[in-house]
Design brief:
Blueprint: H1 14-29, H2 38-67, E1 71-75, H3 85-91, H4 95-104, H5 109-113, H6 125-139, E2 144-149, E3 157-161, E4 164-168, E5 181-182, E6 188-192, E7 195-201, E8 204-210, E9 213-225, E10 232-242, H7 248-252, H8 256-259, H9 261-267, H10 280-309, H11 316-319, E11 320-325, H12 332-343, H13 348-355, E12 359-362, E13 373-375, H14 376-382, H15 384-404, H16 409-415, E14 418-419, E15 422-424, H17 425-432, E16 435-438, H18 441-451, H19 453-458, E17 463-465, H20 472-478, H21 481-491, H22 512-537, E18 546-551, H23 560-576, E19 585-590, H24 598-615, H25 618-621, E20 624-629, H26 634-640, E21 646-649, H27 661-667, E22 671-674, H28 680-687, E23 693-694, H29 699-708, H30 713-719, H31 721-729, H32 744-751, H33 764-781, H34 785-797, H35 804-816
Parallel strand pairs: 1-2, 1-11, 2-10, 11-12, 12-16, 16-17, 18-19, 18-21, 19-20, 21-22, 22-23
Antiparallel strand pairs: 3-4, 5-9, 6-9, 7-8, 9-10, 13-15, 14-15
Helix pairs in contact: 1-2, 1-4, 6-35, 10-12, 12-13, 12-15, 14-15, 21-22, 22-34, 23-24, 23-31, 30-31
Length: 818
């Protein structure tokens, strides 16, 4: 309750809230509550919340400036935020007061919240992690600014049409963004192309870029609200615009295209997240985006530092730290070098000594093909001065590596920043950062043992692992209020500020009355999810079905294919055996495939074709369903996760750095079926093997199979009749009677490989038997409701470790020291 938190301002009573909402509708829209549109009512409510945030936001900025304490800049190419209205109200401690006000105005939270679009600033786990971290940083009162691009159209809006994914533009800014504030005083220039000119100034060599294309970076700030602590941090989003004015002469001459061409080209930088890079223009745009937002962010950070500390750059590592969330922001390293040398007059050694104390790097992938690299020629053309700095960094790195690995040219090339015609961003980040961390304990070990083993041998002390986390405020307190209330009734409310106190729930796993209430909450959440599903897709599900869920970015290593193949086998069992019975289950998928990722889009077609096959059989439909969630986003997740019974975490062992969906499902009482990969390992260690369903090869076995290269999936195909039949149905017209060959690439790649690659590269068929047996165990165990509910309660009780507050405390202790 709000009155329990004296640090929350009490100036917002329900009558003032009502007056504010009605007044805003009258002043800004000329409407009453009765005549206003739903969007206008949302804006009035959201701007009323924002008014309260603004006061705290200003106070936080003033305090940080006055304290002049160390500040974190969290650089990430994406932030998957989700809606802000309800969580901002919750974190400000105003939920009860606003609920009373809205009720008296005959308004409903559900109807208002629906009007807020999910911001198109992110796509997957990387962006959601960044968003959770911003929530925790503010809630722990740590001074931080997130930095990214203000994407006008996000990734894309997914439409399922004709049994396949169709990409539409995500115009999330169509009605504006009530939360953002433009700061024109911080507009800065970012230069691309041009020519580097050397000159002597006071006896020292200086460098400048002439004839380049100058793009203005315009900052828009969104508040990141801490939980009931009056702290509001900032997410800074940069928008690109042309430095050139509108060409009125060309327009008057009838050349309308030329009149605005420069503006249009500049704006392209901040149009779309992850533009397709299967062509040169796409690669060039992605490179431009990566440099654009880090250059603007570093320029601002230095400007802010100088406003408080003057030119005492030796203090820079004491006053700020940059966290590189993956390699996309890696150009921040040479950019800081450029600014310190070219603009502030420092020598190389001094600038390097400062720079390498300011950057820390979080790695998010161990797959070599996913480690980012850029063609040298592309970098040299677009960022000529940055390329010069990279050349010198690479030369000096090479000298150090020669001392560690004398004569081993292959190893030195493998570790170099510039090698084989590419700029290797992971090598840049590892060699130039004072700390490198993995995002689960297994992942951290793989980085040391394999991915960056050669760097680890030289500087073992810079490597660490910090397991990812999720914000329990959004994914339990806000998304699952009935479960949150049940927990608070059982163990008190201190878990809200200290989520590891969820452990106190453990004795309640044996409490029959508590388990029954836990079950009722789950059933209510299924009904609520059905309401959301009906709104968004015009569909509904039977709440008595088991909800078995796999929601994540569509990628072969995440193995949605394994799940779908097993569902097809289940269908065959139902149709072949009139006596076959299984607990009624709906398999729920949510996944976007990158527009240029042909195989991933083919897997979506496969899933949808199996869904059609099941729906055509009245018998199969009684026991088995597939639901594919269209345009899965954070808002869908907030409704789905609390309703889920089973969490599918099927990545090939050793390939998922951590995962965070597994944590969200666990916290909401879903039981995991998964491989010993990423954070699944730590979930298993916490809940015990009786409360998780582990299957498949371990990461060392996968690694050995890859190295040996003698795995033959055809042996499994021939030996397992159920697999053979399901695989054959992919190509025999069962799924696509009019075009049997339409997804034959899936069949071919699993059995024979493609373009000279390995067959079944992610071991779908190899792990199939183990996965199928784990699903049989689930089908047996879930029929004992009491025992299943015990597992569910234990999962929730053990989930406090995975709160992002714990992750951020670890980052701060081990790395940032804010």
């Amino acid at each position: 309750m709000d009155e329990m938190h004296p640090n929350v301002s009490q100036s917002y009573d329900k009558d003032k809230i009502k007056q504010s909402i009605i007044g805003k509708l009258q002043r800004y829209n000329g409407r009453t509550l009765e005549t206003a549109s739903k969007q206008q009512i949302y804006n009035a409510v959201a701007s009323t919340v924002r008014d309260h945030i603004m006061e705290k936001w200003l106070e936080t900025r003033q305090k940080n400036k006055q304290d002049n304490s160390k500040k974190l800049y969290y650089l990430c190419i994406e932030y998957l935020l989700g809606r802000s209205l309800f969580t901002n109200t919750l974190n400000m401690g105003l939920t009860d007061t606003f609920t009373q006000a809205l009720t008296e105005l005959d308004l409903d939270w559900y109807d208002i919240i629906k009007e807020e679009p999910d911001p198109g600033l992110g796509n997957g786990g990387l962006g959601r992690l960044a968003a959770c971290f911003m929530d925790s940083l503010a809630s722990l009162s740590l001074p931080a600014m997130g930095c990214t691009i203000r994407y006008e159209y996000g990734l894309f809006k997914q439409k399922i049409s004709g049994g396949q994914q169709v990409e539409l533009s995500d115009n999330w800014l169509e009605n504006g963004n009530v939360w953002e504030v433009a700061h024109m005083e911080d507009v800065c220039d970012v230069v691309f192309g041009g020519k580097v000119v050397e000159s002597q100034v006071n006896g020292r060599m200086t460098f400048s870029v002439v004839g380049g294309r100058v793009i203005e970076a315009v900052p828009y700030d969104m508040p990141m609200v801490g939980y009931k602590n009056n702290v509001v941090n900032t997410l800074r989003m940069w928008r690109a615009r042309s430095k050139e004015s509108f060409d009125l002469r060309a327009f008057s001459a009838g050349d309308y295209g030329s009149a605005s061409r420069e503006q249009d080209m500049a704006a392209t930088i901040s149009k779309v997240l992850y533009p397709d890079d299967n062509h040169y223009e796409g690669k060039s745009l992605r490179l431009t985006q990566s440099y654009f937002f880090v250059s603007a962010s570093i320029q601002y950070a230095i400007k802010d530092f100088k406003s408080r500390n003057g030119n005492r750059f030796n203090l820079l590592p004491e006053k700020l730290v940059f966290q590189l969330n993956d390699t996309h922001p890696g150009f921040a390293i040479p950019e800081l070098m450029r600014i310190l040398m070219d603009q502030e007059g420092l020598g190389w050694d001094e600038a390097w000594n400062i720079t390498t104390k300011c950057f820390a790097y979080t790695n998010h992938t161990v797959m070599p093909e996913a480690l980012e690299k850029w063609p040298e020629e592309l970098v040299k053309r677009n960022l000529p001065r940055i390329y010069m700095i990279l050349e010198e960094m690479n030369r000096r790195l090479g000298e150090k590596l020669w001392n560690s690995y004398p004569g081993d040219w292959n190893k030195i090339a493998h570790m170099s920043i510039l090698a084989y015609g590419n700029v290797h961003m992971a090598n840049l980040c590892v060699s130039s950062s004072f700390c490198v961390n993995g995002v689960s304990q297994l992942h951290g070990q793989i980085l040391k043992d394999s991915t960056f083993n050669d760097f680890y041998k030289i500087r073992p002390e810079k490597f660490t692992a910090i397991t990812n986390g999720i914000t329990h405020r959004r994914f339990l307190l806000a998304s699952n209020p009935r479960l949150a209330d049940l927990i608070s009734q059982a163990i008190g409310t201190s878990w809200i500020k200290n989520p590891q106190e969820l452990e106190k729930l453990m004795p309640f796993a044996d409490d029959a009355a508590f388990r029954e209430e836990f079950y009722r909450v789950k059933q209510h959440n299924k009904e609520y999810f059905n309401k959301v599903l009906l709104d968004r897709q015009g569909m509904d599900l039977d709440p008595e079905f088991v909800y078995d869920v796999q929601v994540k970015r569509l990628h072969e290593y995440k193995r949605q294919m394994l799940n779908a193949l097993h569902i097809l086998v289940l269908y065959n069992r139902i149709m072949d055996d009139p006596n076959f019975q299984m607990v009624p289950k709906v398999f729920i998928f949510g996944a976007k495939a990158s527009p240029g990722y042909v195989k991933a889009k083919m897997i979506i077609r496969f899933i949808l074709s199996v869904a059609r096959l099941i729906d055509s059989s009245p018998r199969a439909r009684k026991m088995l369903r597939i639901l594919f969630l269209e345009n899965y986003d954070v808002s869908y997740a907030e409704a789905l996760i609390p309703a889920s019974d089973i969490s599918e975490q099927l990545s090939t062992a050793g390939m998922e750095a951590s995962g965070t969906g597994n944590m969200k499902f666990m916290m909401n009482g879903a039981v995991t079926i998964g491989t010993m990969d990423g954070a699944n390992v730590e979930i298993c260690n916490l809940v015990g093997e009786d409360n998780i369903y582990i299957f498949g090869m371990r990461s060392d076995t996968v690694s050995n199979l890859h190295q040996e290269g003698n795995y033959d999936p055809m042996l499994i195909f021939e030996a397992n009749s159920e697999v053979r039949r399901a695989m054959s149905q992919i190509i025999d017209g069962t799924l696509f009677p009019d075009n049997p060959a339409i997804i034959q690439g899936l069949y071919h790649d699993l059995l024979f490989g493609s373009r000279g690659g390995r067959a079944d590269n992610f071991f779908v068929l190899k792990d199939y038997g183990s996965y199928s047996m784990a699903q049989r165990r689930i089908n047996h165990d879930i029929q004992n409701r009491d025992e299943w509910l015990k597992k569910a309660v234990i999962n929730t009780a053990k989930s406090g470790f995975f709160a992002s507050d714990r992750s951020i405390k670890e980052y701060n202790e081990k790395i940032w020291q804010l």
